[in-house]
Amino acid sequence: MKKWIHRIILFFAVSVFFVSFGTVVQADVPHDLVQTEAKAGSIKLQWRELEGAKWYGYQIAYDSSFSAIVRQGEQISTAGEWNNVTVDGLEQDHVYYARVGWGLDPDRCYQLFCQSIEVRTAPGMLYHVQYVGADEHTAVFTWDEYPGAAEYWVRYNGEVFTTTNTRFTLTLKEGSEHKVSIAACKRTKEGFIAEGMGRSLSGVSPLTTKITKKNFGIEKNYNNKGVIYFKAAFQGAGYEVEGVTVSGKKYTFSGQSLGGSNALLRIGDIQNDRMYKYRVRAFVRGTEDQLIYGKWSDYSLFCSQKKISYVAANKKIKLKWNAMTGVKKIRVQISNKKKSGYRTCATVPLKNKTYTIKKYGKAKLKKGKAYYIRLIPIGRLKGKQVLSDAVFCGKVKVK
Q1: Which of 29, 178, 181, 184 could, after both became Cys, cross-link 149 (CB 3.0–4.6 A)?
Q2: pLDDT tens digits for 146-203?
Q3: Are 52 and 70 in contact (CB under 8 A)?
Q4: Phi then psi for 14, rounded to 5 degrees?
Q5: In angstroms, rounded to a whole number, what is the distance separating the alpha carbons of residues 278 and 241?
Q6: Average of per-residue pLDDT values in the chain
Q7: What are the residues whose beta carbons fall under 8 Å from the beta carbon of 174, sequence distance 6 or more?
Q8: Alpha-carbon torsion, ordered 210, 220, 252, 259, to 10 deg
């Protein structure tokens, strides 16, 4: 009977010892092991320093049982709150398991390991990342799905935007051109996000979806040379213009400017004495120089006249012009300033081919004073009369 009592007492004593020892061991292991960084062939680990530890031994394995260890090494204590190590020589886009033990010297630090965690290296680069759309405030990107990706990160202007789709519309900040980087991301069981190599796109720009008439027109008109210079205000990498005569033989022209907003676009071989209709659209450069276009503007009219003659005498200015195909009427205007203050003298049928100016407003023309004259051809678009861009005749001094 006494032997059984002794055995029972011994059993409980040993059990308490092992339970207590197990508790001590469990407490005396590195705490808070986490992954803090992932690159194509490396990871970075961090853990809380353990009081009394001089060295740490880390192991990286293919499996959670650590039967296939691929990397291991020693790390001296920092005597601070945290310790960390970067482990190189790993495979890209691969899952591993990591753990950290400790000891008093490098030869005895692979013991008393902490609980292992899942870690992973960074995914690879995305394929076919393309800049495919834009408007005044946004840019649109697409890319191929990356196998196993949990999400995608879009880096722009110091911010990170996340999406699970392979198409993303980014709201652009103010500025003419922007740089964007897009990467695939994968998660570990512990929630760490491994960001892949970003695919960068530069030259991303807002795009004016439709240029209004007030923001586009003729800057210079060299009638005698058949040359027109256009100018546009818009957002984008450039703009293009196309035109065609409104009647008669279909003389056409087209051109493209890559100079950005307010750049001049020269168009040659313009047929004189003909009314043209023209329109414009802006564009940005997408992936592989593919152009992303805005909408065509509404049509405007202009007429390139070869010769407008005048005679100034007896306090009058007599104008003469050639016949112009596609023009219905001519509006005659006068001003004492070159760029403003124009008043309409009359709107006359084209067939008249002449008009005499006697007054500026209600006042008669003054001898010795200079005036500015311009003619505005009037055509028709969609059944409505439309004023063309003004044709400047020149400065005339009354005699």
Answers
A1: 184
A2: 999 999 999 999 999 999 999 999 999 876 568 999 999 999 999 999 999 999 998 8
A3: no
A4: -65, -40
A5: 7
A6: 87
A7: none
A8: -50
Distance CA 324, CA 281 (A): 27
* Short-list 230, 294, 219, 231, CA closest to 262: 231
215 is written with which tokens?
């923001």
Cα–Cα distance for residue pair 104/28, rounded to 1 Å: 13
Fold held by 130-204: Immunoglobulin-like (2.60.40)
pLDDT > 90 fraction of the chain, expressed in percent and rounded: 56
What is the topology classification, in CATH, of domain 308-397?
Immunoglobulin-like (2.60.40)
How many Å is the maximal CA-CA distance in the chain? 150
pLDDT, residue 260, reads: 75
Q: Find the DSSP H helices in the chain.
A: 2-27
Name the pLDDT band for 28 (thresholds 50, 70, 90): confident
Of 3.40.190.10, 1.20.1560.10, 2.60.40.10, 1.10.443.10, the CATH number of 213-304 is 2.60.40.10
What is the rounded radius of gyration, in angstroms, for the C-alpha atoms of the chain? 40
Predicted local confidence at residue 23, as pLDDT: 36
Cβ burial, residue 280 (10 Å; 0-12/13-18/19+): buried
Q: Is 392 exposed, middle or buried (0-12, 13-18, 19+ CB in 10 A)?
A: middle
Architecture of domain 28-120: Sandwich (2.60)
Are 119 and 97 a contacting pair, CB within 8 Å? Answer: yes
Q: Do domains 28-120 and 130-204 have the same CATH topology?
A: yes
User: Which pair of structure tokens corresponds to residue 154?
Assistant: 């879009």
